[in-house]
Amino acid sequence: MRGTTTALGTPYPLGLLLPAVFQEDDLLMRFTGAIDLLIAPAISTLDCLAAYVDPALAPPDYLGWLATWVGIELDETWPVEQQRAAITEAVALHRGRGTVGGLRRQLELATGGEVEVLDSGGVSWSVVPVDEPAGQAPPSVQVIARSNKIGLAALEAVVDAAKPAQVVHEVRIEPVSGER
Fold this sequence. Notes:
180 residues, 8 helices
């Protein structure tokens, strides 16, 4: 967690911004020096704001907050670099949402391995509204992940969140030999 910083200097000391006659007053200079110590962390944060919103530079404890800005949920068990990659690719992932390619890329980020997505494909339409199109199997997706870094329940949750709601899915994990 983030802690306090002792004796952080400020690039804009308040005492030096006062007229010269006030700068001669020792009490006033000590008072403005104390205020400088209080506001120095805020000035430093504002000076470095670009680093806080860049996934490659943001402190690890800010990544969860940054993820909410781009509309994703991070798994806190992921390594920091995997979390950074997910935030960096969030916009592209949203653009591909509901597509086989978008699902594959999201699962590759989550598993850190190779993922195969098989889609039943096809569309149907009708002039008359009906509950189920006649003679057609419901749309489905089969996911085969080759990774040792994610469990079946976690992978099921990622697939369930990323696929369209009406699509039935089946998930399988094939362990990769020699990887841990």
